[in-house]
Specification:
The chain is mostly helical and about 130 residues long. It folds into two domains: about 40 residues, no CATH class; about 90 residues. Helices cover about 70% and strands about 0% of the residues. It has ten helices and no strands. It is elongated and about 60 Å long.
């Protein structure tokens, strides 16, 4: 059904649809449609966390998530953003400062994140131990 819809209809459904529609439309190739899913007022923190961990391919979605102060208050979302390679480096470094020592140690050893983030995690660990 989603394949038969026009762009305008998809955007309208992304802004007002239920969880099932959001999960379908967030994968849409059109950035306007997938970005509209993030702007849906009924989207939950759990859905955002699932999107981040699921490896979103759309950089615009990552920027929209980073810009939402309500979602950034959630520690698990911040941690997932730091671990996601699509997160803008500036934002990831900012969130890195809020991580616990245990998570910093894990991030410092991780091979799945960027070298810049890994290096910053190592530096922060050394500064905390001093």
């Amino acid at each position: 059904m989603a394949q038969l819809m026009g762009i305008g209809e998809k955007i309208k459904m992304a802004l007002s649809g239920d969880k099932e529609w959001r999960s379908i439309l967030v994968k849409d190739a059109n950035k306007l449609v997938s970005g509209s899913v993030i702007k849906n007022p009924r989207i939950t923190d759990g859905e955002i966390l699932t999107l981040i961990k699921g490896g979103i391919q759309n950089d615009e979605i990552m920027r929209l998530i980073c810009a939402n102060k309500e979602w950034i208050k959630n520690y698990n979302i911040r941690k997932a953003l730091v671990e996601n390679n699509r997160t803008p480096v500036q934002s990831a470094i900012r969130y890195l400062g809020t991580m616990s020592e245990k998570d910093l140690a894990q991030l410092a050893k991780s091979k799945n994140i960027g070298t810049v983030i890994s290096t910053m995690a190592k530096r922060m660990l050394l500064n905390k131990k001093r």
